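Throughout this review, each integer encodes one residue's backbone shape. One record appears below.

===
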Amino acid sequence: MQRSERMVERHVHTHDHPHEDEDHGHSHGLIHESIKRSRAGIQAVSLSLAVLGLAAMAQTAVFLASGSVALLADLIHNFGDALTAVPLGIAFALRSQLAERRAGLAVVAAIFISACVAGIEAIQRLLHPAAPTHLATLALAGAIGCAGNFIAARIRLSAGRRLHSAALIADGHHAQADAYVSLTVIASAIVVALGAPIADPIIGLGITLVILRITWQSWGTVRGHHSS
């Protein structure tokens, strides 16, 4: 009788233990980590969106006063950068790796479109010259763009590495490069102040080339992530 009871007890134990692991270990852990990752990702892209949005709005006010093409190129790019947070945020909300990869493609597309718009504006200003005004304010706008992109880059890179998100890391590197691009707006204000207004659209074209280079690098990152 005791032997039969031990066999029944052992059978119940081996049956219940895997069930317990499934319900209270791995499954619940995965759901918990997925939700945590989703919330952290949404928080990161929302915060970076707010930072870049504020910087772009401040630059818009300065552009309307100064008419600088170099600033316009940087402004358009910063607005594009801010909007890349939207597909990334949706991807994190869906908790989908596939959506994240597609968001990476949306980031690349946004960068390329911003380069095209900035290039067209710079060419038009070369054909129809007009020197920018309010140069001190223009330089301040460049500093605002640089600071906004630097902060957004830190937010995205930190979260991307913590969450192992290739799309968020790529967007962070993009914002980091844009911080240096914004410095050229300050250079444009200085050069125009020294008596060379033609430098403004030329610098705008230079920014366009930098944006195109970032587009290519970002495409390489996204494509490499797809193939992995």
User: Anything to note?
Assistant: The helical segments are 2-66, 69-83, 85-94, 97-127, 135-163, 166-193, 199-227.
